[in-house]
Specification:
The protein contains three helices and no strands. It has about 90 residues and is an all-alpha fold. Helix 1 runs antiparallel to helix 2 and helix 2 packs antiparallel against helix 3. The radius of gyration is 17 Å and the shape is elongated.
Length: about 90
C-alpha cells in the first residue's frame, strides 16, 4: 500500500475535487439538454483529471519504492506492482 502524505496528498485531493466538480457540471449539462460535443469535451476533461490523480499516486509509490531500496528496506509495493497499476491507467 502506498502512503500518500504532504504535498502529494494535497495535490491528489485537489485533482479529485476538481473532477468531482466537473462531473457535477456534466450531469447538469445533460439535464439541461446541452450539445453532445460540449458534454463529451467535459467528460474528456474529467477523464484527464482522474488520470492525473492516479499518475500522481503511482509517482509517489515509485518514489517510496526507490527510497526504500536505497535505505535497504523492503518497499511496500515492488516495481512490478507499480507497473501494473500504471498500465491500468494507460
Amino acid at each position: 500500500m502506498v502512503e500518500i502524505e504532504g504535498e502529494a496528498l494535497t495535490d491528489v485531493i485537489k485533482r479529485l475535487r476538481r473532477a468531482e466538480g466537473q462531473i457535477r457540471g456534466v450531469i447538469a449539462m445533460l439535464e439541461d439538454g446541452r450539445d453532445c460535443a460540449d458534454v463529451v469535451t467535459q467528460l474528456a476533461a474529467v477523464s484527464r483529471a482522474l488520470d492525473r490523480a492516479g499518475f500522481k499516486i503511482i509517482a509517489t509509490g515509485l518514489r517510496e519504492c526507490v527510497t526504500a531500496q536505497e535505505s535497504g528496506e523492503e518497499p511496500q509495493l515492488n516495481v512490478a506492482q507499480l507497473e501494473k497499476l500504471f498500465l491500468s491507467l494507460a
